[in-house]
């Protein structure tokens, strides 16, 4: 079609190589199966009594495990038939269905490989066993143990390592820049960064100490005196000068946390990839984030923040927590296996700089996971914030990146989507031996800053985020979605209780079958789990007896919550996706559940929100939940296509808003729609484009913060009282 | 009257059978290629790839024919890569052109293809999308114009300028090596 020129061959060659890996397609397959939205459009024979016709195994497999899910089962009669019924009911979808049936060539397999267009090889990839399979994590006896484990890892770490895209905004210009002027120090009730565990602080990109806002803006932190109508920027912290020896520049501020009068800023040091130099255009330097830095600033006078010290560790930022005046910082460090040298630990062991230069983590502080698929470490350090001194460090080779921290323990969970022939076999009560997707968990005791890795275990299935884990009285409760691909592709929601050695002591293997977990929240001895297939069962599970968790109730309502937040002792807030009885999803919704009687959870209010997505689904820190003022806020994004082909221009319109709802005690009323941006993407200002915004209240003022602007509103009327453009 | 590309509310007939799995089967390579050339790194490309098909799955656009379905997927891929390649406030910093590709640059095992991808990355999206559709998808100027909603003349101009820029970038590369 196109005429040939000097680029044609190379581009065609490139095109041949650009195919998604089987693993990626399989993950998409999983995601699509887990995603209920499209169910309605799938052709299913409505006459068939058995629900998902061509996938007979799905319907027959897991019956044995239903024994202890009595309550669940009884609340979901006929759930299996819903897909077929839903098809007829779903307005728009019925058209698709009709067409599909007429065409006839369509496979009746729901999301199975169609004969015409096989999606993915369904065979489970077999990876060569790497080391003598061991069932438990082992402490490294010396660096040679570590080296062997790194050298024999099966996959290149580059494909799977944590990606950090924090890149600089401006040429380096060192030092800390101060602005004049001091604000009056006042205290009033304010919004803290949304955290999972009371007392355990989490970091964010816009935070407040109740008087000042600290806002990440590229490589700077803007300090803003939050004084209502008089709000103004009083200082700028420039972190661009924090490069260490060998680093070319620093990246964007990744996260921040305040403890007392200390502001801790997390950012990365970038080094050039020497090998890539000649391979890239001369104007390119391939940069990699190699070192995670924690910069400690004294903010006892917020208008004059002063840099006290910088501690660093290999890798990129995973997460952080502050508890009891100690910082726990977690990074992920993929080893460049092409450069490892058996005699040089610095080439295969993460480095930690505690103030006197980078040194390899001692082998005594390294634990090797049973299977090291990827030569990648998780590095955890503990730091006494007041002393600015590191108190311990631990590195786990082969661990993942979901972090949950209670006041006693830090857990690192890594979910493996794929089963492998040498994967550990998990015995699922009522189901039998299982080798499917799993989550490996490591427990580190905090010991007031003297970290030690004390246990390692595995549960079936994958976790969705940190809220999938919760500890109480020494027991860890984990909610996962698992599926046994040996027998069925239908996902199951399971709940597992582990003791302090991370051995399974109790479980509900099939809280729901053919359903995927969408959100989880533990409050005390109750677990709330939202799964979804057609309608939204909100399960309340009694986990007070670790050996015998039991389902107390299952509320079915359309749509599903992607974030759950305990609003009060008797109310649970849900933010998520709206839907109708047929399982067709549309827009978002915010809902409130009455959980005063966990045996009879009811939805007391639900308000549809016209938007396609909210950052809250991915990041709980984007949620503003203010139970004092009875306000709930979050950013939303909507995009719509308009225009026509071929005559007219084709336009995608993006609308980012920050929505605030008031909770009246019985319903939500929309308090404010604060526009962040609307229009074509191309014309959007750089910062507004992503709609990443944080809302927080200090006293009687509501602050809507983006990296560009702080907008201040009177909190009762939401009338604008000040707008401050931030400068870097 | 102009035919609307794809409607997210169902109207009219459905010319081609489009269960999501079939759409994935037919277009996974096309979408993945766009994701790679427009993010240049594997983790982002993987994320975008998933997001494109999830968007299809959720919106279930009713496309009147195969060309429109393809166009919808191309546009959505471009939209999503745009969003992801500069996603999140944490990372929302304009990459300096001279220090571009991010930590996880996508690599072929052939240096000349790496160079070409790098050169393509250096073009800027305006030219990149046109070059991509022309060379990798073998689309004609008129088709590209339809899909991107721009004039055929603009496509030709972008193609020509894009080629020139590619040549320059590759020449510099050769000189450097």
Task: Please sum up the structure shown.
The complex is a heterodimer of chains A (728) and B (177). With 728 residues, chain A is mainly beta.
Question: How are the secondary structure elements laid out?
Answer:
The complex is a heterodimer of chains A (728) and B (177).
Chain A (H helix, E strand, L loop, with lengths): L7 H10 L4 H13 L21 H5 L9 H6 L6 H8 L1 H13 L34 E2 L3 H9 L49 E2 L3 E3 L3 E6 L2 E6 L6 E7 L10 E2 L4 E5 L2 E11 L1 H6 L7 E12 L7 E9 L1 E8 L2 E9 L16 E3 L4 E3 L5 E3 L7 E9 L4 E9 L4 E4 L3 E8 L9 E3 L3 E3 L3 E8 L6 E9 L8 E4 L2 E8 L9 E7 L5 E10 L2 E8 L2 E7 L2 E8 L7 E9 L1 E7 L4 E9 L5 E10 L7 E8 L3 E2 L9 E3 L4 E13 L6 E14 L4 E13 L13 E5 L2 E5 L3 E6 L5 E6 L3
Parallel strand pairs in A: 16-18
Antiparallel strand pairs in A: 1-16, 2-12, 3-4, 4-5, 5-6, 7-9, 8-9, 9-10, 10-11, 11-14, 12-13, 13-17, 14-15, 17-18, 19-20, 20-23, 21-22, 23-24, 25-26, 26-27, 27-28, 29-30, 30-31, 31-32, 33-34, 34-35, 35-36, 37-39, 38-39, 39-40, 40-41, 42-43, 43-44, 44-45
Chain B lengths: L5 E2 L12 H20 L2 H18 L2 E2 L2 H20 L25 H11 L3 H12 L4 H8 L3 H25 L1
Antiparallel strand pairs in B: 1-2
Helix pairs in contact in B: 1-2, 1-3, 1-5, 2-3, 4-7, 5-7, 6-7
What does this structure look like?
The complex is a heterodimer of chains A (about 725) and B (about 180). Chain A is mainly β and about 725 residues long. A seven-stranded mixed β-sheet of chain A has the order 1-16-18-17-13-12-2, covered by helices on one side. In chain A, strand 31 and strand 32 (about 550-560) form a beta hairpin. Residues about 40-135, about 155-190, about 275-285 and about 645-650 of chain A have low confidence and may be disordered. With about 180 residues, chain B is mostly helical. Chain B has two domains: about 20-90, Rna Polymerase Sigma Factor, Chain: A; about 110-175, Arc Repressor Mutant, subunit A (Orthogonal Bundle). Chain B is built from seven helices and two strands; from the N terminus they run βααβααααα. Chain B has helices spanning about 20-40, 40-60, 65-85, 110-120, 125-135, 140-150, 150-175, and strands spanning about 5, 60-65. Chain B has a two-stranded antiparallel ribbon with strand order 1-2. In chain B, helix 2 crosses helix 3 (about 65-85) and helix 5 (about 125-135) crosses helix 7. The longest helix of chain B has 25 residues, at about 150-175. Chain B is globular.
